[in-house]
Amino acid sequence: MAAPRTLAAARRAAAAAPRGWRGAGGGAGGGTGPGRSRLYEHVREGLSARPQLEVSALSERELERRRGPLRGGDLREIVQTWSRLGEVRATIARLEAEKGRVAQSVRALMAAHDKETAEALPVYAALRARGRQVRLQLQALLAEEAALDERFYLKALQLPNRTHPEAPVGDESQARVLEVVGEKPAFDFKPKGHLELGEGLDIIRQRRLSHISGHRSYYLCGAGTLLQHALVRFAMDKLLSKGFLPMTVPDLLRGAVFEGCGMQPNATPSPVYNIDPSRFEDLCLAGTSEVGIAGYFMDHAVRLEDLPIRVVCSSTCYRTETDTGREPWGLYRVHQFTKVEMFGVTAAESGDESEALLAEFLALQKEIFSELGLHYRVLDMPTQELGLPAYRKFDIEAWMPGRGKYGEISSTSNCTDYQSRRLNIMYSDGAGQLRHAHTVNGTACAVSRMLIALLECNQLPDGRVRVPPALQPFVGQAVLTPPTAPLLRYIGPNQPRGGREVP
Asked: 467, 480 in Cβ contact below 8 A?
């Protein structure tokens, strides 16, 4: 399963894929479930180069530890399928060569004799019979090849990345605390939660929205909106000063790009919003700009001397939050939020380049959170928390006094060549030789969760909230103060019983 080594070879590989194939589970944009791969459909329709998957580097033990959709026995099946596929393709190549020789012999015979004489010769009849036999064999083998190819990719595309040897084994309870930064804020009063604070300041609204925008939605207004813009500006300015390339990406993307990033738009239930396929074929709302940035590099090569490439993007993120029983109120689990994302593309000459960029992204996250005065801890995430694409992942959790516990505010992952092998993200040297790049991603600022930590950690006894000095130039004030009266008073039909006034 070697990757194409030149740009021309990559183009030929893409062009070789037959068009019009819709795959198991229905047409592109319709159907879900394990029998369908949008990325495989994308390839078979000739829209992208064939994924160059690396199966030999994985072990059954790694699959068991990751607890993903596949187990050790699936890996054995994948390897067996690939082995048989290789045998079939070798036989096809041999028969295609023989078919060519038979055709050449027939042409030579016809050139040496007139048509009637040639067709009367026994050798002519033998050649024609062998030609028919070869064509029938090829017909059967090509059908088997197509079935094996589909079986291989539908399984292999669900394989996870390799796992860093230092990653803890197990579920989230096994996360290893690497560092604790700052001190927990001390209060001589009972701290409020961010929603109570936000409502008191009239900057967050989450009540009476089910008939407007559904559950897990919210409004920011006034200083809440200013805080959101301040956080985005602060993070963007920080990363632009470090040489990051700013980018704006689509919010709507093909399911194939999600799958190439290691996400599962066809899962049941799906963490991804799928747009109605009867109207818009195979489009999903992005839960992170990582998908859009990866799509920007899909089927493209960059020069070695231009690496690493560091990209920053601020975007709206959409999450289904299918586990709706957890934290139904507040900003911790919401369907839509703003996030500033870091994404990097590195070379793989030594194999250490992506690890170095992962460390750089983590250092930048710590710099941002420390300058905002947060108390946080850095976690080395265990195998069952890596998802499919991550080789290693670090999470940062900030202390949230209103919740009485730490809450995740960022993660950063080294995906090595997992995404690049699926999305055909390459880099080339001066001779035009292509190699798979490595990709790294990280959260610079997830606004909704940052608002939780900032409001809860900077609250005062009277409901006011201090603005961190780093954000004051953007917000225009040092302290947020509750209004003398709320902007709105509810006059709708669902008034509470007892006559109590509702703001």
From this structure: yes
The whole-number pLDDT of residue 351 equals 87
Whether residues 96 and 214 fall in one domain: no
Q: How far apart are CA 56 and CA 169, in angstroms?
A: 21
| CA 355, chain centre distance (Å) | 19
Give the pLDDT score at 264: 84
Using alpha carbons only, give the angle 403, 406, 412 rounded to the nearest 5 degrees: 135
Distance CA 383, CA 173 (A): 11
12 pLDDT band, cuts 50/70/90, is very low
Question: At 154, is the secondary structure helix, strand, or coil?
Answer: helix
- Residues annotated within the binding site are 288, 319-321, 334-337, 341, 408-411, 441
- At 265 the pLDDT is 81
Residues 464 and 332 placed together within one structural domain of the fold? yes
In a shared domain, residues 307 and 455? yes
Higher pLDDT, 176 or 60: 176
Taking the C-alpha atoms of residue 211 and residue 233, their distance in angstroms, rounded to an integer, is: 32
Mind giving me the DSSP string for 323-392? -TTS--SSSSS-SEEEEEEEEEEE--SSS-HHHHHHHHHHHHHHHHHHHTT--EEEEE--GGGSTTT-SE
Higher pLDDT, 38 or 56: 38
Same domain assignment for residues 186 and 45: no
> 309 and 395: one domain?
yes
Domain of 20, in residue numbers: 7-156
Q: What's the pTM? A: 0.86
Are 204 and 138 in a shared domain? no
Same domain, 232 and 356: yes
Q: How many domains does the chain have?
A: 2
Please give the order of strands across the beta sheet that includes 283-285. 252-254, 283-285, 273-274
Is residue 288 helix, strand or coil?
A: coil
Q: Which residues are part of a known binding site for L-serine?
A: 288, 319, 341, 441
Active site residues: 319, 333, 408, 411, 449
Question: Which regions of 361-473 does DSSP assign to beta strands (E)?
Answer: 376-380, 392-400, 405-414, 425-428, 434-436, 438-446, 465-466
> Does 360 share its domain with 424?
yes
Bind-site residues for ATP: 319-321, 334-337, 408-411
